[in-house]
Amino acid sequence: MKMLWVWGSLFIFLVLFWGMTYQRSAGRFRGCTDMKMEGIRLQKMAPPMLYVLEKLKISQRFPILFYKVQHSIQKISGDRRGGEFTLLFLAEMLNYSWLLLVAGCLMTLLMDGEITGIVIGGILSVLLPAALINDLHRKVVKREQAIHLELPELLNKLVLLVGAGSTVQQAIRQCLDRKQEEEQHPLYGELFRMQRELEGGYSFQQALEGFSKRCGVQEVSAFTTAVLLNYRRGGNDFVLALRDLSHSLWDKRKSVSKTLGEQASSKLIFPLVLIFLIIVILVGAPAFMIMDM
């Protein structure tokens, strides 16, 4: 009975803590419920945990964790609201941990004080946030790989169009006109945004620099630097500069394709081993049955 009282008290404390924190933070962090970020599912529950993060001063006490997450989120969601999105992502992690602890306490109470429920909930409350951070890092790597694979193709088209007499801006616009259906692609999505900035009054240099920062990939930075240094010259010098860059980008694309192929091969190992074990069992079972007879 004593253990039941302990777990019941913990359950009540967790529920009351969240409820009281929500009352204090609902009005203060009301705007966070309107923010849109891919992968966030508990946005309505974010205010209490945002309040906790503010009181804990997470960016000062855990700067490495905070800026690592912020760097990844800025690459995915852009750099304008990177800090706000980072806090929203951390609040999502805390909400998952809170829900798992509450569920663990409830399981323990339903199992008459058996600590298995709270142990499982406690372990998952630590592992799940780590898994979310790992998934965020995987999304960043996947985004960079998509850019590495598509950038050489784009550069080849620009070389052909500029060599045919188009300006850089005209060549980029013509490439985008043929990629209207691929606006969700990381590279073309940023190029469409750059095009809208140019139409909104940004200079070509400002829009191109913003495009490079949002992509956050070294090869894109090299591409924008080459364009900014040579696009005013035009002619053969500019085309030759882009062709030299294209060779190095194709080498990078080959290495990325090789890495993806190796990853695909490694993912097939487990199914192949499983199929092999099933075949061994199917072939060997009759033999053992005959031996027993």
TrEMBL record:
Residues 155-285 form the Type II secretion system protein GspF domain. It is a multi-pass membrane protein. The chain crosses the membrane at residues 6-22, 85-109, 115-133, 268-291. It is found in: Cell membrane. One of its GO terms (cellular component) is plasma membrane. Its main location: membrane. Keywords: Cell membrane, Membrane, Transmembrane, Transmembrane helix. Coiled coil: none annotated. This is Type II secretion system protein F (GspF). It comes from Fontibacillus panacisegetis.
